[in-house]
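tokens incoming
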């Protein structure tokens, strides 16, 4: 054995010993801090075992008689302060044991890379155990993203859309509303994008069109005994696409006193259709992806918010945090960290990084428009023609998740007229 090989082996042994020593020390320190905290709180949750996990330590503690994991949850702020990390508490069912995760190492920033997922799983980022985190849209049918200005709401929405398009461009339809800022217009050329609405009137018609699809699908599924879109697609060769309606600021569609009468009517019409989609969209496979600057009773109807999985990046105040996720923790969030409040409870996730020009995203979805950089050209016009699909309807019986529409005109009739016109043109006759 040469001298270099010997030195490498020796160095490896030394590093292994140092690593073991470090791990043992971290586990011991965490156990010491836990026991000290229990003494201060006059609680008797004893550690049964502890082990290292990515970015922290996992404790298994025994619950004393007459106590439950809720008695620990009351003191979560004290636990996080004393253990110097992010603490999650999970009850181990059918036992007297509780699992405690203490994340006390930062999850490093990471660039966006697509993660394989079906069209019902929304990729958000990585949790602090470095596992990919998804929202199942069949359990949490709509998503609301909040946070202070400049915290990365639009970046998060863009990474969500890119992952959806990259994995499922042939099985989803996207409708994009960008009346206010137009910050998601870079997706307008993508194959999955059906329409982009840039005015209140255009978005009103888009919402009406999608609400009509919800009604049609609900009728179809109910009459044929299907529970939802996934159930239907599993049993039919002709698959229906999952629909995502993207709104950059959902509170914009709540009418204000300062709006003129025409604007009020359009906004009220939009909000009626938003309610329709929110209430009946889960089964129909139609979902909202929405952003809001502030989530309050005044700008987000509680009936709508209750149907949404809420994500927040850093918030300015505890009140703002509580308004969106019913927890004050968002004021403590650092860059690219978010809290998610949905069917899984409260989760903390770090979202991926990207450049402001979205060049990282265009590496994976070529149609994304990037400043001063070639992109795959638009294959068809995506702007909604008002005259083509204009119809009116009145929703009835919303509370029973049944939506019945009284139509003044239908797309079917319009299509038949176009077909008839083309046939006449081929025969050399023009229909007047």
């Amino acid at each position: 054995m040469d001298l270099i090989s010997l030195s490498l082996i020796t160095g490896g042994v030394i590093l292994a010993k140092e690593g073991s020593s470090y791990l043992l020390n971290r586990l011991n320190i965490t156990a010491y801090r836990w026991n000290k905290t229990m003494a201060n709180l006059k609680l008797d949750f004893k550690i049964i075992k502890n082990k290292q996990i990515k970015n922290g330590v996992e404790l298994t503690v025994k619950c004393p008689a007459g106590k439950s994991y809720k008695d620990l949850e009351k003191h979560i702020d004290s636990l996080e302060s004393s253990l110097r990390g992010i603490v999650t508490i999970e009850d181990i069912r059918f036992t007297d044991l509780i699992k405690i995760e203490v994340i006390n190492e930062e999850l490093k920033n990471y660039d966006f890379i697509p993660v394989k997922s079906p069209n019902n799983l929304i990729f958000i980022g990585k949790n602090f155990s470095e596992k990919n985190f998804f929202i199942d849209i069949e359990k949490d049918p709509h998503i609301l993203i909040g946070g202070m200005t400049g915290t990365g709401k639009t970046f998060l929405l863009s990474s969500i859309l890119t992952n959806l398009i990259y994995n499922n461009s042939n099985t989803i339809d996207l409708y994009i509303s960008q009346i206010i800022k137009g910050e998601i217009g870079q997706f307008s050329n993508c194959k999955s994008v059906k329409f982009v609405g840039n005015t209140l009137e255009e978005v009103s018609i888009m919402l009406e069109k999608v609400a009509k699809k919800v009604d049609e699908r609900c009728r179809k599924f109910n009459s044929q005994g299907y529970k939802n879109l996934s159930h239907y697609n599993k049993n039919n060769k002709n698959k229906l696409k999952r629909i995502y309606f993207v709104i950059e600021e959902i509170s914009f569609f709540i009418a204000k006193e300062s709006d003129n009468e025409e604007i009020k009517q359009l906004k009220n019409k939009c909000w009626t259709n938003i309610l329709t989609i929110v209430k009946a969209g889960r089964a129909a496979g139609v979902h909202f992806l929405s952003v809001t600057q502030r989530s309050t009773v005044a700008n987000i109807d509680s009936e709508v918010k209750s149907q949404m999985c809420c994500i927040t990046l850093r918030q300015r105040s505890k009140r703002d945090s509580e308004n969106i996720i019913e927890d004050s923790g968002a004021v403590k969030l650092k860059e690219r960290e978010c809290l998610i409040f949905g069917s899984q409870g409260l989760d903390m996730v770090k979202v991926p990084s990207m450049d402001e020009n979205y060049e990282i995203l265009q590496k994976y979805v070529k149609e994304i428009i990037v400043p001063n950089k070639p992109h795959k050209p638009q294959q068809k016009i995506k702007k909604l023609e008002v005259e083509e699909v204009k119809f009116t309807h009145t929703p009835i019986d919303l509370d029973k998740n049944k939506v019945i529409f009284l139509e003044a005109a239908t797309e079917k009739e319009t299509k038949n007229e176009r077909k008839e016109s083309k046939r006449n043109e081929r025969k050399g006759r023009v229909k007047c």
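note: The CA atoms of residues 214 and 284 lie 6 Å apart.
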